[in-house]
Amino acid sequence: MPTVIDALRRFLPTYLSTKPVLSGVQRRAVWALQNCRTAVMGGHVHECPTCPGQREYGFNSCHHKSCPQCGRTATAEWVRREQGKLIPAPYFMVTFTLPSELRDLFFGKEAKAAYDAFFHASAATLSQTLAEKKWLGADTSGFTMVLHTWNQKMLFHPHLHCIVPGAGLDTQGNYVVVKNADYLMPADALKKVLRHHFGQQMKAHGLSCDPAVWRKKWGVNVQAFGSGENAVKYLGRYIFRSVISDSRILSITDTHVTFRYLDRSDRNNPRARTMTLSGIEFVRRHLRHVQPAKLRAVRYYGYHHPAAKKTRQRVQQGSGAATITATPSASAEEAAQNEEAGTAKRKHLCPCCQQPMQMIARIMPSWTNGALWVPVQSRAPPREKGAQRA
């Protein structure tokens, strides 16, 4: 079955031979993609104690955000953690999209400042609008923002998905909730406010753009998501993943990559289509989504912030549930089962006797000095409590 990492490793040398202009973070991503789960990263050696000569070699992951091989375990953990924060209230997905004229801001030395401005402006827009009495009237609100920079065709399309519960606390600390579970506010109420706050953020960060952009309609979408579990699962599929998944890759030839995408030009009738790109173009599109160093692509605001546990408990109490225990959905249970299967696999069961293999040595990364093979010293069992040292 063809995979994303197969396509990238096949065409990266050809792409690099064109001498592209790469940023420092892109060069770091190229190195990680080429060496993830190889001997360069180091690893470990397992041996079966009962089957002579039966060994397994495993190599470390790069854990780079752009790597299609990494992130599955972190995704399952994030979904379970966020589902544990859900309150019994209607949830909404608010999506902010900037005009195409602003996309050049996200490349170059000011890229991180542009992303931060996008986050801050969107958060200020939501907080201000949710506080208005004609919508929610919550002086204290909470929401989670997740950055995406791609569309189905792997083109650059920066947008923020926001999980927003329709509940909060008013200025007196009383619990308030939306009157209609299917309606939070009109998108037009957010567009003008977003445009204002983003302009203020651009001035604060010293950014500039074409003045015509302020006369355009900015993209905002508000959609009801029921209890919120669907919103968490939807974002969980992308939050720690790269631009395209392995399941969408149809074929890889010596020169081209063919993949499947969803054409949403007709929102009422999205269609599955295929696209074929040259290997160089496939790599170029993938690397274009490498984010600036130290950029936090997931951010929490209000009572969704990890440090706002007491405020979140007050909201939960106001909703009539002092303690919330999220019921894992079928997808969450499936993710948990997959993780358990992965854990069992990591135990390195012997293919002959199916007994756990023992790690006998570590393979050191190529950039370290000294021995490449470090034996693992066996440890004595822990002493019982109160036992005397010999």
Radius of gyration based on Cα positions? 25 Å
The total of beta strands comes to 14
What class would the helix/strand composition place it in? alpha+beta
Quaternary = single chain
The share of residues in extended strands comes to: 15-25%
- Listing every helix as H and every strand as E from the N terminus to the C terminus, the arrangement reads HHEEHEHEEEEHEHEEEHEHHEE
Share of helix, binned: 25-40%
Layout: helices, strands, pairs:
Layout: H1 4-17, H2 24-35, E1 43-47, E2 55-59, H3 72-83, E3 91-97, H4 111-130, E4 142-150, E5 156-165, E6 167-169, E7 175-177, H5 188-205, E8 219-224, H6 229-236, E9 249-252, E10 256-263, E11 271-278, H7 279-287, E12 298-302, H8 309-318, H9 330-346, E13 358-363, E14 373-375
Antiparallel strand pairs: 1-2, 1-13, 3-5, 3-8, 4-5, 4-12, 6-7, 9-10, 10-11, 13-14
Notes on the protein architecture:
By secondary structure, the protein is an alpha+beta fold. It has a domain at 72-243 and 289-328. Helix content is 31%, strand content 21%. It is built from nine helices and 14 strands. A hairpin with a 3-residue loop joins β9 and β10 (256-263). α3 (72-83) crosses α9 (330-346). It is globular, with a radius of gyration of 25 Å.
Sum up the structure in keywords:
single chain, 390 residues, alpha+beta, five-stranded antiparallel sheet, four-stranded antiparallel sheet, 14 strands, globular
